[in-house]
Batch of 2 targets.
Target 1
Amino acid sequence: MLAIIGGTGLTQLSNLEITHRQVIRTPFGEPSGALTFGLINQHEVMFIARHGYGHTIPPHMVNYRANMWALQEQGATRIVSVASVGGIRSDLLPGTIVVPDQIIDYTHGRFSTYFDGREKPVTHIDFTHPYCLKMRGHILEAARMAREKLVDGGVYAATQGPRLESAAEINRIERDGADMVGMTGMPEAALAKELGLSYAALAVVVNYAAGRGNSRDGVHLEAVSIVAQPAMARVKKVLEMLVESDGD
Ligand code: HPA
């Protein structure tokens, strides 16, 4: 089954016909909220709001392990993560939707593995391609069918938050090779790999990163929802097509 993780700006799916909600407990604690089950165009999907349905859980406090565990336990085999980002690369203007293909992790102090020596022996997963290539292909194909333009590829920098970055940090992150910056992409992607889930992301650019474009003198958070709303409507159109792909 396809699971959708909604981020900032996507705490519910208006095109989801809800059938039931389920509270799940996991060996790693509680997920961000109940899992929502429902139908999009007759296809069963699962949804969870990463920051909680009331948007109360900051990025560094999200229980990523519980979220991914719960989704898998309830039958998710593929996961599309929707996340908002700040744009660094010059073509990633606010409103752009990107399917990233690489990650740089700047987060710290988060529970970032299931292999912590307690229940399972230490295992080093391969992370050369942090996102599932097949899943990325399905998303890009869904976008073509929905006639929505997505950017194919880009390096996602995961920062710790919850504060935004300084302009110098963005310059450094760009020198490192990142194209966009968000706070929730890690450890989510690594945990998905550990569980053997097909995982890819839709990164919605909601602002210029600090020091860039109209964020030169500061990031204007009040403008974010104006950009996010129409972009999330486009994300939903892509998701409607994505559910049609069978996942093979
Ligand atoms: N930085 C980090 N995370 C973000 C940003 C940003 O500028 N915009 C949305 N999420």
Target 2
Amino acid sequence: MVKVDKFIQDSIQKIKKDIKGRAIIALSGGVDSSVCAVLAHRAIGDLLTPIYIDTGLMRKGETEIIKKIFSDMNLQVVDGKENFLKALKGQTDPEKKRKAVGEAFIREFEREARLLGAKYLIQGTIYPDRIESEGGIKSHHNVGGLPSVMDFESIVEPIADLYKDEVREVARALGLPHEISDRMPFPGPGLSVRIIGEVTEEKLDVVRKANAIVEEELLEQFKPWQTFAALLEKGTGVKGDVRVHGWIIAVRAVQSRDGMTADAMELPWDVLQKIQSRITSEIPTVSRVLYDLTPKPPATIEFE
Ligand code: XMP
């Protein structure tokens, strides 16, 4: 994007014009919502309350990082773990899971908004989210998954026309730390779309640990556009002398420009072996680790 400064000035003016009262923003700590939070804070100051919902579907250590980075804003942290698990109980269809998470999000926000007297919701929806939802590929939780009955007077989406790399440019221009501006994308429904089928506390625990190992081994050294672990089904394995029925973990590492297409990264064998060895030894209930070679298309980046 050539005119980052102009974009920033224009969107601050637009937010000022569109928002006539208290507003909340769904802050996830990702680059999209962080940029929106800073833009909105500059536009309406203390009328803005950023809210971070700890859904229980977050990555290891995520809540702590967010608390640290946004400590100078009036950040509210809401513990929604139980509500999200309840909403996801028995759900196995990816779209229904997305909708369940989307609805749980909105209910939490509506409640907080009511308490604060906020009528406006600011969202970090970006251009590819809209395209994919409109094209019927999948309903991103912050677009197609919204419940039809909303308490908010309006939803404001300041970066709805930007691609991811443009959002990162804006983040740098706004002076956000590199931890945020270069943060890899993380889906709104969180780890729930990295678990095939029903989400349970046990599966969340396994996939969160596996994900942390994958990030530790790949993020700094290989700078993937996105990398993570997903939990598939159970399969037969052998640990010690005993046959076990253990979890199968898939590792994904891709390069991409904007998430619309992607290529699997060619990683050194010893690195893949180290990931396999760490996951199966540090998480005893995992007996098999796979590396996903598939580009997008025909696969998507996430597993659901
Ligand atoms: P897919 O899996 O569609 O992912 O190839 C493209 C990019 O979008 C992210 N993603 C989501 N983000 N809500 C989001 O906010 C969602 O429901 C969702 N599904 C996928 C994914 O992580 C990747 O960066």
